[in-house]
Structures are given as structure tokens and as C-alpha cells.
Design a protein that fits this description.
- The protein has 11 helices and 18 strands.
- The chain is of the alpha/beta class and 406 residues long.
- The protein has 2 domains: 258 residues, 4-Layer Sandwich (L-amino peptidase D-ALA esterase/amidase), CATH 3.60.70.12; 121 residues, Ubiquitin-like (UB roll) (Roll).
- The strands form 4 sheets. A 7-stranded mixed β-sheet has the order 10-18-13-17-14-15-16, sandwiched between helices. Strands 3-11-8-7-6 form a 5-stranded mixed β-sheet, sandwiched between helices.
- A hairpin with a 2-residue loop joins strand 6 and strand 7.
- Helix 1 packs across helix 2, helix 2 runs parallel beside helix 3 and helix 7 crosses helix 9.
- It is globular, with a radius of gyration of 22 Å.
- The two termini are 19 Å apart.
Length: 406
């Protein structure tokens, strides 16, 4: 179950990046579950990771390696998260990096490991390692779709986005894939994302772009309020198609490439929401008029996380009282409810402390019966606004997660 029809975009290969897949049999036999992303020498790489204190062992290794060496290879497996597996899980991640490094003839620190799947089970490293030669041998620049499928877990569809933009006279490609459908929450939800560009971007500038784009995309989606142990998003800049390097974060070139990268990040993030576990609705929550950005976010989160709001979404019920209740408990000090206004798309629900005189149940019902719509709130306290995207909470979500380990 997902919102909208499945589609795969036109994908522009990124010079200096190739992807290969293989079947290691980690959870299921004869299923692609291993991905390698081969990165050319001289590329810059940045990343953001989960803020869950119980971060997975591969996350610990990837964070450390990213700081120690120029990244040349990403190794990703689905079917097993290798999280909460202690010293044995850490050793399995390191063992994988050592094996991949030997095959690629690079240092172990230049290999970043990633895992996704069930928490608490030790990664069968030997299975993964045995699949690495086949994955490396299958590397191609146009392998994005196959790789996107191989990293899926409860996803129902692969997720990809690709753009081209002119930067400093060069035609630059930006392409990315992601996975994620449940355990999605701001501060990186249970998702993996890999985005590459053939622009040349200085390390400090790439890190700035990586953080800011993640903040406005993957950190603005929530499906069920859970933050996973394995979330990672990696941004690669190969420089293979650029005549000059972007070193100034105030330059026109910087603004052009950042806008295009953000577009790819947001497309991938929205695809995750549309494919949320059991989702039948994709809803944008837009809060304006906050006295601070955090205030607007707090209200948006309260609405998007509310089980009562989310079940009303599933029922296509314009139960605006649940939205108002969430605004009220969001923790906004001295909120003047008389000034708050609430809309479903362009249908005004609430003003002057109660139901808007123009509101009709029929108008509200028309909006919430759609697959996609917006909940808009004006707090009338300032000039800050924030937006995030969420899903409904369905019977199917419960079934998927109740049966996840079976």
C-alpha cells in the first residue's frame, strides 16, 4: 500500500560513481541484498547519521572512517541491521570493510559500511563478504534502479531522483536513491540515502550542503514517530564533470548546486512518505506565524505525531478538533488561541478560538478524501514558518509491524 502510482525517474549517470549488486542470502535466498557504490579517487564525501543513542555498529564504523580517510567504497546490505549487536557486530562491520578494501585495493578506512533490517541480530559477515566480488564485478554507472531495489526492506517501491543543472558553464548531474517506509521520524528516520553529483565541491562546503539539505528534507518527514538506529545519508561529489571547484558558500555556483541537491533530497524524502508503511495519505503540515522556527516545528510535530490526527486522516474524517488539541498541547507558552487559524488546503476550519463561520463539513470532507492535502496553521505570533510531511496510521501499518519478524 502506498500513495500514488509507482514511477521511476529518468536517471542521469554521475561520472565517477558506479553501483553493483549481488545476492548474499542474508535474510532471503536469491534476492539482491548487497550493494557496493564505487567512488573515484579524489571525490569528497559527507554524511549525516542517526541521533539514536543505540546507533548501529556500521554507523559507528562509517562515522569514524568518514573522518579518517578519503572514501572510495560504500558497502550496503539489507535484511539485517547489525544494531545492538555489541563487539561482535562491530567486528562484523570491520571485517566487511577489510574484505572490501582488499578487493578494491584501498585502505579499510576508505570503506563505509551500512546495514538495514531487523535490529538485534548479528550480521552474517561471511555471507556478505562472499557476495562482494560479484557486486564489485557488476558495477555500472547506470545501476541506480537495481541498487535502489536491493536496499529495500518493507518498502513497496524503489526510490530515486535525478536532476541536471548548469553550474559555472558545466552541465552537472545529481542522482540519488533512498530506502525507508517505517520507523521514520525527524533526526533521521529509518532510512538510507545515497546522493552523488559530478560537481567538484570542497569538503567543508559539501558538509554544509549535506547538513542543510538533510535538515530540510529527511529531517522534515515523520511516519510513526520512531527514530531508527541505522539512519544514514551520504553525499558524494566526484568532480569528474566540473572545470572548477566550489569553495565559496556564498557564490552563485554554490547556490545553484545546493538548490539542485536539495531538490533531489526533498524528492527522495517525499517518496519515503508516500511509501510509508500502510500509508493511504500523504499530508503536508505547514505552520506559519511562529515566534521562532522551533515553535513552528513543535506545533507541526505535535499534529503530525498525533495518533488521533493520523487515524482521522486514515478514516478521511475532517475531525478538526484533534488538530486543535494537538496545537494546544505542543508546549507554546502564552498561546493566544483567539489568533490561531487552521485550514485544510484552502478551507478555513478554525478562527477566533472556534470553528470558522464559513466552514462546512462537506467542504472539509472533500479535502480529506484526497490522497494528498495540506494542514495549514497560522499561530499569529511572528514571522517563522516550517513544513513537514507525514502519513496516516492504518490497519495495514499495524499488520506490517506486527508481522515484521515472522
Amino acid at each position: 500500500m502506498a500513495v500514488g502510482k509507482e514511477s521511476w525517474p529518468e536517471v542521469f549517470p554521475v561520472a565517477g560513481v558506479s553501483l553493483g549488486v549481488a545476492a548474499a542470502g542474508i535474510k532471503y535466498p536469491d534476492r539482491y541484498d548487497t550493494v557496493v557504490i564505487d567512488i573515484c579517487d579524489g571525490a569528497t564525501v559527507a554524511g549525516v547519521f542517526t541521533q539514536n543513542a543505540f546507533c548501529a555498529e556500521p554507523v559507528k564504523v562509517a562515522r569514524a572512517h568518514l573522518k579518517q580517510s578519503n572514501t572510495r567504497l560504500l558497502v550496503i546490505n539489507s535484511g539485517n541491521a547489525n544494531a545492538c549487536t555489541g563487539a561482535a557486530g562491530y567486528e562484523a562491520a570491520i571485517k566487511t570493510c577489510l574484505a572490501a578494501a582488499e578487493l578494491k585495493r584501498v585502505t579499510p578506512e576508505s570503506v563505509l559500511p551500512f546495514s538495514t533490517g531487523v535490529i538485534g541480530e548479528l550480521l552474517p559477515a561471511d555471507k556478505l563478504i562472499n557476495a562482494l566480488p560479484a557486486a564489485l564485478g557488476a558495477c555500472r554507472e547506470d545501476n541506480w534502479l537495481t541498487a535502489a531495489k536491493a536496499i529495500m526492506t518493507t518498502d513497496t517501491r524503489p526510490k530515486g531522483a535525478s536532476r541536471q543543472v548548469e553550474v559555472g558553464g558545466d552541465i552537472i548531474s545529481i542522482t540519488g536513491i533512498a530506502k525507508g517506509a517505517g520507523m521514520i521520524n525527524p533526526n533521521m528516520g529509518t532510512m538510507l540515502g545515497y546522493v552523488a553529483t559530478d560537481a567538484a565541491i570542497a569538503q567543508d562546503v559539501l558538509e554544509k550542503i549535506s547538513l542543510e539539505c538533510a535538515q530540510k528534507s529527511f529531517n522534515r518527514i515523520t511516519i510513526d514517530g520512531d527514530t531508527s538506529t541505522n539512519d544514514s545519508c551520504i553525499l558524494i561529489a566526484t568532480g569528474a564533470k566540473a572545470s572548477s571547484k566550489i569553495t565559496d558558500s556564498h557564490s552563485e555556483e554554490y547556490l545553484a548546486i545546493k538548490e539542485a541537491i536539495l531538490d533531489v533530497y526533498q524528492s527522495l524524502a517525499l517518496q519515503i512518505v508516500e511509501d510509508g508503511e500502510g500509508a493511504t495519505k500523504c499530508v503536508e503540515v505547514y505552520v506559519r506565524g511562529g515566534a521562532s522556527a522551533q515553535e513552528s516545528l513543535d506545533v507541526a510535530y505535535a499534529i503530525a505525531h498525533s495518533p488521533l490526527v493520523k487515524t482521522a486522516m486514515f478514516a478521511s474524517d475532517p475531525n478538526w478538533g484533534r488538530i486543535v488539541a494537538a496545537i494546544g498541547y505542543a508546549g507554546i507558552q502564552d498561546l493566544n488561541v483567539e489568533g490561531v487559524r487552521v485550514w485544510l488546503d484552502d478551507v478555513l476550519l478554525v478562527e477566533k478560538g472556534g470553528r470558522a463561520s464559513s466552514y462546512t463539513e462537506e467542504a472539509g470532507q472533500t479535502v480529506v478524501s484526497k490522497e494528498r492535502y495540506q494542514i495549514q496553521v497560522d499561530l499569529a505570533r511572528g514571522n517563522f514558518d516550517e513544513v513537514l510531511w507525514t502519513t496516516d496510521l492504518s490497519h495495514e501499518y499495524i499488520r506490517i509491524n506486527a508481522e515484521y519478524r515472522s
